[in-house]
Amino acid sequence: MVVIMKAKSSEEDIEHVAEKIRKMGLKPHISRGIERTVIGAIGDESLLNIEQLEAIRAVDKVIPVMKPYKLVSREFRPENTIIQIGNVSVGGDKVAVIAGPCSVESREQLMATAREVKKAGATLLRGGAFKPRTSPYSFQGLGEEGLKLLAEARDATGLPIVTEVMEPGQVALVARYADVLQIGARNMQNYPLLKAVGKIHKPVLLKRGLSATLQELLMSAEYIMSEGNHHVILCERGIRTFCEFSRNTLDLNIVPAAKKETHLPIFCDPSHGTGKYDLVCPMAKAAVACGADGLIIEVHNNPEEASSDGDQSLTPKNFAKLMHDLEPVAKAVGRRL
Ligand code: PEP
Ligand code: MN
Question: Can you give the residue ranges of every domain in the chain?
Fold first, then answer.
Protein backbone atom coordinates (compact mmCIF):
# COMPACT_ATOMS: atom_id res chain seq x y z
CA MET A 1 0.00 0.00 0.00
CA VAL A 2 1.14 3.52 -0.77
CA VAL A 3 0.15 6.65 1.18
CA ILE A 4 0.42 9.93 -0.71
CA MET A 5 0.79 12.89 1.64
CA LYS A 6 -0.79 16.25 0.88
CA ALA A 7 1.57 18.89 -0.57
CA LYS A 8 3.37 20.87 2.12
CA SER A 9 2.95 18.16 4.78
CA SER A 10 5.20 18.78 7.74
CA GLU A 11 7.86 16.38 9.10
CA GLU A 12 5.52 15.87 12.03
CA ASP A 13 2.65 14.81 9.72
CA ILE A 14 4.94 12.38 7.92
CA GLU A 15 6.20 10.86 11.15
CA HIS A 16 2.61 10.58 12.42
CA VAL A 17 1.63 8.46 9.39
CA ALA A 18 4.85 6.41 9.61
CA GLU A 19 4.11 5.69 13.26
CA LYS A 20 0.52 4.64 12.47
CA ILE A 21 1.86 2.21 9.85
CA ARG A 22 4.34 0.79 12.39
CA LYS A 23 1.56 0.38 14.96
CA MET A 24 -0.48 -1.59 12.40
CA GLY A 25 2.45 -4.01 12.11
CA LEU A 26 4.09 -2.87 8.84
CA LYS A 27 7.26 -1.04 8.00
CA PRO A 28 7.01 2.51 6.57
CA HIS A 29 9.23 3.44 3.66
CA ILE A 30 9.39 7.23 3.22
CA SER A 31 10.24 8.71 -0.14
CA ARG A 32 10.49 12.48 -0.31
CA GLY A 33 9.76 14.10 -3.67
CA ILE A 34 9.98 17.78 -4.60
CA GLU A 35 6.20 18.27 -4.44
CA ARG A 36 4.99 15.33 -2.37
CA THR A 37 6.08 12.73 0.09
CA VAL A 38 4.98 9.18 -0.52
CA ILE A 39 5.04 6.51 2.19
CA GLY A 40 5.04 2.85 1.25
CA ALA A 41 3.85 0.27 3.78
CA ILE A 42 5.94 -2.88 3.58
CA GLY A 43 4.44 -6.11 4.95
CA ASP A 44 1.09 -7.82 5.25
CA GLU A 45 -1.39 -5.33 3.81
CA SER A 46 -4.35 -7.17 5.37
CA LEU A 47 -3.20 -5.79 8.76
CA LEU A 48 -3.77 -2.22 7.61
CA ASN A 49 -6.85 -0.21 8.41
CA ILE A 50 -7.03 1.86 5.23
CA GLU A 51 -9.99 3.95 6.38
CA GLN A 52 -8.09 5.08 9.47
CA LEU A 53 -5.13 6.13 7.35
CA GLU A 54 -7.43 7.99 4.94
CA ALA A 55 -8.92 9.84 7.89
CA ILE A 56 -5.57 11.46 8.74
CA ARG A 57 -5.94 15.04 7.53
CA ALA A 58 -2.43 15.30 6.07
CA VAL A 59 -3.06 12.22 3.89
CA ASP A 60 -4.17 12.93 0.34
CA LYS A 61 -4.72 9.40 -0.94
CA VAL A 62 -4.17 5.80 0.04
CA ILE A 63 -3.56 3.37 -2.81
CA PRO A 64 -3.91 -0.30 -1.87
CA VAL A 65 -1.74 -2.74 -3.80
CA MET A 66 -3.84 -5.75 -2.89
CA LYS A 67 -7.39 -6.37 -4.13
CA PRO A 68 -10.12 -6.13 -1.46
CA TYR A 69 -11.51 -9.51 -2.55
CA LYS A 70 -9.81 -12.86 -2.16
CA LEU A 71 -11.97 -15.92 -2.85
CA VAL A 72 -13.42 -14.48 -6.08
CA SER A 73 -10.05 -13.46 -7.48
CA ARG A 74 -8.08 -15.11 -10.28
CA GLU A 75 -5.01 -15.05 -8.03
CA PHE A 76 -6.86 -17.28 -5.57
CA ARG A 77 -8.01 -19.67 -8.31
CA PRO A 78 -6.35 -19.24 -11.73
CA GLU A 79 -8.56 -21.75 -13.57
CA ASN A 80 -12.20 -21.01 -14.48
CA THR A 81 -14.78 -22.28 -12.02
CA ILE A 82 -17.18 -24.78 -13.54
CA ILE A 83 -20.49 -25.13 -11.73
CA GLN A 84 -22.55 -28.29 -12.04
CA ILE A 85 -26.35 -27.89 -12.01
CA GLY A 86 -27.91 -31.31 -12.49
CA ASN A 87 -26.45 -32.41 -15.79
CA VAL A 88 -25.77 -28.86 -16.98
CA SER A 89 -22.28 -27.48 -16.43
CA VAL A 90 -21.76 -23.76 -16.38
CA GLY A 91 -18.48 -22.00 -17.08
CA GLY A 92 -16.97 -24.56 -19.47
CA ASP A 93 -17.05 -24.78 -23.28
CA LYS A 94 -20.80 -24.89 -23.49
CA VAL A 95 -22.75 -21.64 -23.32
CA ALA A 96 -25.72 -22.16 -20.97
CA VAL A 97 -29.06 -20.57 -21.80
CA ILE A 98 -31.61 -19.87 -19.07
CA ALA A 99 -34.98 -19.09 -20.62
CA GLY A 100 -38.53 -18.66 -19.45
CA PRO A 101 -41.05 -16.07 -18.37
CA CYS A 102 -40.32 -13.06 -16.21
CA SER A 103 -43.02 -14.24 -13.78
CA VAL A 104 -44.72 -17.54 -13.22
CA GLU A 105 -48.36 -16.66 -13.92
CA SER A 106 -50.24 -19.94 -14.30
CA ARG A 107 -49.67 -23.65 -14.94
CA GLU A 108 -50.74 -23.24 -18.58
CA GLN A 109 -48.45 -20.26 -19.19
CA LEU A 110 -45.43 -21.85 -17.52
CA MET A 111 -45.84 -25.32 -19.04
CA ALA A 112 -46.42 -23.97 -22.53
CA THR A 113 -43.36 -21.72 -22.31
CA ALA A 114 -41.20 -24.37 -20.63
CA ARG A 115 -41.92 -26.93 -23.34
CA GLU A 116 -41.12 -24.43 -26.07
CA VAL A 117 -37.82 -23.28 -24.59
CA LYS A 118 -36.78 -26.87 -23.96
CA LYS A 119 -37.58 -27.75 -27.58
CA ALA A 120 -35.49 -24.80 -28.78
CA GLY A 121 -32.47 -25.98 -26.75
CA ALA A 122 -32.55 -23.95 -23.52
CA THR A 123 -30.52 -25.55 -20.73
CA LEU A 124 -32.30 -24.08 -17.70
CA LEU A 125 -35.77 -22.69 -17.00
CA ARG A 126 -36.36 -19.33 -15.37
CA GLY A 127 -39.48 -17.84 -13.78
CA GLY A 128 -40.07 -15.48 -10.87
CA ALA A 129 -42.35 -16.51 -8.03
CA PHE A 130 -41.31 -13.63 -5.75
CA LYS A 131 -41.10 -10.51 -7.89
CA PRO A 132 -39.22 -7.29 -7.02
CA ARG A 133 -41.59 -4.79 -8.66
CA THR A 134 -41.03 -1.04 -8.74
CA SER A 135 -44.66 -0.46 -7.86
CA PRO A 136 -46.37 -2.14 -4.90
CA TYR A 137 -49.54 -2.25 -7.03
CA SER A 138 -47.93 -4.37 -9.78
CA PHE A 139 -48.16 -8.17 -9.86
CA GLN A 140 -45.98 -9.45 -7.02
CA GLY A 141 -45.70 -13.09 -8.09
CA LEU A 142 -47.49 -16.28 -7.03
CA GLY A 143 -45.15 -17.02 -4.11
CA GLU A 144 -44.89 -20.68 -3.08
CA GLU A 145 -47.59 -21.63 -5.58
CA GLY A 146 -45.21 -20.36 -8.29
CA LEU A 147 -42.36 -22.45 -6.89
CA LYS A 148 -44.56 -25.55 -7.03
CA LEU A 149 -45.40 -24.84 -10.65
CA LEU A 150 -41.70 -24.42 -11.44
CA ALA A 151 -40.98 -27.80 -9.84
CA GLU A 152 -43.74 -29.32 -12.00
CA ALA A 153 -42.22 -27.74 -15.10
CA ARG A 154 -38.83 -29.18 -14.15
CA ASP A 155 -40.38 -32.64 -13.84
CA ALA A 156 -42.06 -32.25 -17.21
CA THR A 157 -39.04 -30.93 -19.12
CA GLY A 158 -35.97 -32.02 -17.14
CA LEU A 159 -34.75 -28.41 -17.10
CA PRO A 160 -33.23 -27.23 -13.80
CA ILE A 161 -35.00 -24.15 -12.47
CA VAL A 162 -33.72 -20.67 -11.64
CA THR A 163 -35.85 -18.40 -9.48
CA GLU A 164 -35.38 -15.28 -7.38
CA VAL A 165 -35.18 -15.07 -3.61
CA MET A 166 -35.79 -11.64 -2.12
CA GLU A 167 -35.15 -11.94 1.60
CA PRO A 168 -33.14 -14.08 4.02
CA GLY A 169 -36.31 -15.59 5.53
CA GLN A 170 -37.28 -16.98 2.09
CA VAL A 171 -34.01 -18.76 1.38
CA ALA A 172 -34.93 -22.14 2.91
CA LEU A 173 -38.28 -22.19 1.10
CA VAL A 174 -36.88 -21.19 -2.30
CA ALA A 175 -33.94 -23.60 -1.93
CA ARG A 176 -36.40 -26.47 -1.37
CA TYR A 177 -37.66 -26.02 -4.94
CA ALA A 178 -34.99 -24.19 -6.95
CA ASP A 179 -31.81 -25.56 -8.53
CA VAL A 180 -30.30 -22.06 -8.76
CA LEU A 181 -31.23 -19.14 -6.49
CA GLN A 182 -31.27 -15.78 -8.19
CA ILE A 183 -30.32 -12.60 -6.33
CA GLY A 184 -31.93 -9.73 -8.20
CA ALA A 185 -30.21 -6.50 -9.17
CA ARG A 186 -32.00 -4.57 -6.44
CA ASN A 187 -30.71 -6.98 -3.82
CA MET A 188 -27.08 -7.21 -4.94
CA GLN A 189 -26.02 -5.36 -1.81
CA ASN A 190 -28.55 -6.90 0.57
CA TYR A 191 -25.81 -8.28 2.80
CA PRO A 192 -27.99 -10.39 5.13
CA LEU A 193 -29.46 -12.04 2.00
CA LEU A 194 -25.98 -12.64 0.52
CA LYS A 195 -24.87 -14.24 3.78
CA ALA A 196 -28.00 -16.41 3.89
CA VAL A 197 -27.46 -17.81 0.36
CA GLY A 198 -23.80 -18.23 1.29
CA LYS A 199 -24.83 -20.81 3.85
CA ILE A 200 -26.69 -23.11 1.46
CA HIS A 201 -25.20 -25.50 -1.08
CA LYS A 202 -27.03 -24.48 -4.22
CA PRO A 203 -25.64 -22.29 -6.99
CA VAL A 204 -26.48 -18.59 -6.87
CA LEU A 205 -27.04 -16.32 -9.89
CA LEU A 206 -25.93 -12.91 -8.64
CA LYS A 207 -27.22 -10.04 -10.77
CA ARG A 208 -25.33 -6.77 -10.97
CA GLY A 209 -26.97 -3.82 -9.23
CA LEU A 210 -28.38 -1.00 -11.34
CA SER A 211 -25.38 1.20 -10.68
CA ALA A 212 -22.87 -1.24 -9.21
CA THR A 213 -19.22 -1.24 -10.20
CA LEU A 214 -17.36 -4.44 -11.05
CA GLN A 215 -15.60 -4.23 -7.70
CA GLU A 216 -18.92 -3.95 -5.85
CA LEU A 217 -20.30 -6.94 -7.76
CA LEU A 218 -17.21 -8.96 -6.87
CA MET A 219 -17.42 -7.91 -3.23
CA SER A 220 -21.03 -9.15 -3.15
CA ALA A 221 -19.88 -12.48 -4.60
CA GLU A 222 -17.16 -12.51 -1.92
CA TYR A 223 -19.89 -12.19 0.76
CA ILE A 224 -21.56 -15.36 -0.55
CA MET A 225 -18.29 -17.26 -0.92
CA SER A 226 -16.98 -16.20 2.47
CA GLU A 227 -19.93 -18.06 4.03
CA GLY A 228 -18.87 -21.27 2.27
CA ASN A 229 -20.93 -21.33 -0.94
CA HIS A 230 -18.46 -21.10 -3.83
CA HIS A 231 -21.05 -21.74 -6.56
CA VAL A 232 -21.64 -18.18 -7.70
CA ILE A 233 -22.55 -17.12 -11.23
CA LEU A 234 -22.27 -13.41 -11.95
CA CYS A 235 -24.81 -11.75 -14.23
CA GLU A 236 -24.66 -8.47 -16.15
CA ARG A 237 -28.23 -7.20 -16.57
CA GLY A 238 -27.80 -3.62 -17.72
CA ILE A 239 -26.99 -0.47 -15.82
CA ARG A 240 -28.52 2.99 -15.62
CA THR A 241 -27.15 5.45 -18.13
CA PHE A 242 -28.44 8.56 -19.92
CA CYS A 243 -29.71 6.48 -22.85
CA GLU A 244 -33.45 6.87 -23.28
CA PHE A 245 -33.94 4.39 -26.14
CA SER A 246 -33.48 1.34 -23.94
CA ARG A 247 -34.56 0.39 -20.41
CA ASN A 248 -30.94 -0.09 -19.33
CA THR A 249 -27.55 -0.21 -21.03
CA LEU A 250 -26.16 -3.74 -21.27
CA ASP A 251 -22.57 -3.17 -20.19
CA LEU A 252 -20.76 -5.85 -22.15
CA ASN A 253 -17.38 -4.37 -21.18
CA ILE A 254 -17.84 -6.05 -17.83
CA VAL A 255 -17.62 -9.53 -19.37
CA PRO A 256 -13.95 -9.43 -20.42
CA ALA A 257 -13.16 -7.18 -17.44
CA ALA A 258 -14.66 -9.70 -15.00
CA LYS A 259 -12.82 -12.56 -16.73
CA LYS A 260 -9.52 -10.86 -15.91
CA GLU A 261 -10.38 -10.38 -12.26
CA THR A 262 -12.30 -13.51 -11.35
CA HIS A 263 -12.57 -17.24 -12.04
CA LEU A 264 -16.37 -17.14 -11.62
CA PRO A 265 -18.62 -17.59 -14.66
CA ILE A 266 -20.47 -14.53 -15.94
CA PHE A 267 -23.83 -14.48 -17.73
CA CYS A 268 -25.64 -11.69 -19.56
CA ASP A 269 -29.30 -10.76 -19.42
CA PRO A 270 -30.12 -8.89 -22.62
CA SER A 271 -33.84 -8.88 -21.70
CA HIS A 272 -33.49 -6.56 -18.70
CA GLY A 273 -30.37 -5.06 -20.27
CA THR A 274 -32.37 -3.62 -23.18
CA GLY A 275 -36.02 -3.81 -22.13
CA LYS A 276 -37.06 -4.22 -25.78
CA TYR A 277 -37.70 -7.56 -27.47
CA ASP A 278 -36.20 -6.41 -30.78
CA LEU A 279 -32.88 -5.50 -29.12
CA VAL A 280 -32.61 -8.78 -27.22
CA CYS A 281 -31.32 -11.04 -30.03
CA PRO A 282 -28.52 -8.79 -31.31
CA MET A 283 -27.30 -8.18 -27.76
CA ALA A 284 -27.53 -11.87 -26.87
CA LYS A 285 -25.22 -12.62 -29.81
CA ALA A 286 -22.87 -9.81 -28.80
CA ALA A 287 -22.75 -11.20 -25.24
CA VAL A 288 -21.71 -14.64 -26.46
CA ALA A 289 -19.20 -13.07 -28.84
CA CYS A 290 -17.47 -11.19 -26.01
CA GLY A 291 -17.13 -14.27 -23.83
CA ALA A 292 -20.26 -14.58 -21.68
CA ASP A 293 -20.60 -18.07 -20.20
CA GLY A 294 -24.35 -17.98 -20.49
CA LEU A 295 -27.49 -15.99 -21.15
CA ILE A 296 -30.73 -15.42 -19.31
CA ILE A 297 -33.58 -14.61 -21.65
CA GLU A 298 -37.21 -13.83 -20.96
CA VAL A 299 -39.58 -15.84 -23.14
CA HIS A 300 -43.38 -15.81 -22.89
CA ASN A 301 -45.87 -17.93 -24.80
CA ASN A 302 -47.98 -14.80 -25.26
CA PRO A 303 -46.02 -11.61 -24.44
CA GLU A 304 -49.06 -9.39 -24.93
CA GLU A 305 -50.72 -11.08 -21.97
CA ALA A 306 -47.67 -11.13 -19.67
CA SER A 307 -48.13 -9.89 -16.09
CA SER A 308 -44.60 -8.42 -16.21
CA ASP A 309 -41.99 -7.51 -18.82
CA GLY A 310 -44.01 -8.53 -21.88
CA ASP A 311 -42.32 -5.79 -23.90
CA GLN A 312 -38.91 -7.41 -23.52
CA SER A 313 -40.07 -11.04 -23.75
CA LEU A 314 -39.34 -13.10 -26.84
CA THR A 315 -42.02 -15.29 -28.36
CA PRO A 316 -41.08 -18.99 -28.45
CA LYS A 317 -40.61 -18.64 -32.21
CA ASN A 318 -38.14 -15.75 -31.84
CA PHE A 319 -36.34 -17.62 -29.09
CA ALA A 320 -35.94 -20.69 -31.32
CA LYS A 321 -34.49 -18.48 -34.05
CA LEU A 322 -32.10 -16.90 -31.56
CA MET A 323 -30.85 -20.31 -30.42
CA HIS A 324 -30.23 -21.21 -34.04
CA ASP A 325 -28.44 -17.93 -34.77
CA LEU A 326 -26.28 -18.21 -31.66
CA GLU A 327 -24.62 -21.42 -32.80
CA PRO A 328 -22.15 -19.92 -35.30
CA VAL A 329 -21.41 -17.05 -32.90
CA ALA A 330 -20.51 -19.49 -30.12
CA LYS A 331 -18.42 -21.52 -32.55
CA ALA A 332 -16.54 -18.44 -33.71
CA VAL A 333 -15.32 -17.83 -30.16
CA GLY A 334 -14.43 -21.44 -29.43
CA ARG A 335 -17.60 -22.30 -27.56
CA ARG A 336 -20.66 -24.38 -28.29
CA LEU A 337 -24.31 -24.02 -27.48
C1 PEP B 1 -35.61 -10.84 -13.25
O2 PEP B 1 -34.67 -11.50 -13.74
O3 PEP B 1 -36.79 -11.22 -13.30
C4 PEP B 1 -35.33 -9.54 -12.63
C5 PEP B 1 -36.23 -8.94 -11.86
O6 PEP B 1 -34.13 -9.07 -12.94
P7 PEP B 1 -33.29 -7.85 -12.29
O8 PEP B 1 -33.13 -8.17 -10.84
O9 PEP B 1 -32.02 -7.91 -13.06
O10 PEP B 1 -34.08 -6.60 -12.54
MN1 MN C 1 -38.36 -9.47 -15.79
Answer: 2-63, 83-332
CB atoms within 10 A of CB 329: 17
User: What one-letter code names the amino acid at 54?
Assistant: E
How many whole angstroms separate alpha carbon 327 and alpha carbon 319?
A: 13
d(CA 20, CA 41) in angstroms, rounded, equals 10
Q: How far apart are CA 177 and CA 184, in angstroms?
A: 18
Q: Which ligand is in closest contact with the Cα of 248? A: 1
What's 312's DSSP letter? G
CA-309 nearest atom, ligand 1: 3
Distances (CA, A) of 267 to 108, 219, 227: 28, 17, 22
Pairwise CA distance, residues 70 & 325, whole Å: 38
Q: Is the pTM of this model over 0.70?
A: yes
CA-nearest residue for atom 6, ligand 1, is 184
Among 92, 94, 248, 265, smallest CA distance to 185 is for 248
Q: Which ligand 1 atom sits closest to the C-alpha of 308?
A: 3
Ligand whose nearest atom lies closest to the CA of 186: 1
Under CATH, to which class is 83-332 assigned? Answer: alpha beta
Q: Phi first, then psi: what are they for 202, rounded to 5°?
A: -115, 150
Summarize pLDDT for 187-236 with one digit per residue, the tens.
999 999 999 999 999 999 999 999 999 999 999 999 999 999 999 999 99
SS3 231: coil
Sign, CA torsion 27/226/83/210: negative
Summarize the confidence of residues 59-88 as an average pLDDT.
94
Cα 207 to ligand 1 centre (Å): 8
Residue 53, SS3? helix
For 241-271, the pLDDT digits (tens) are 999 999 999 999 999 999 999 999 999 999 9
- Given 3.50.50.60, 3.30.70.1140, 3.40.50.300, 3.40.190.10, which CATH number is that of 2-63? 3.30.70.1140
For 156-179, the pLDDT digits (tens) are 999 999 999 999 999 999 999 999
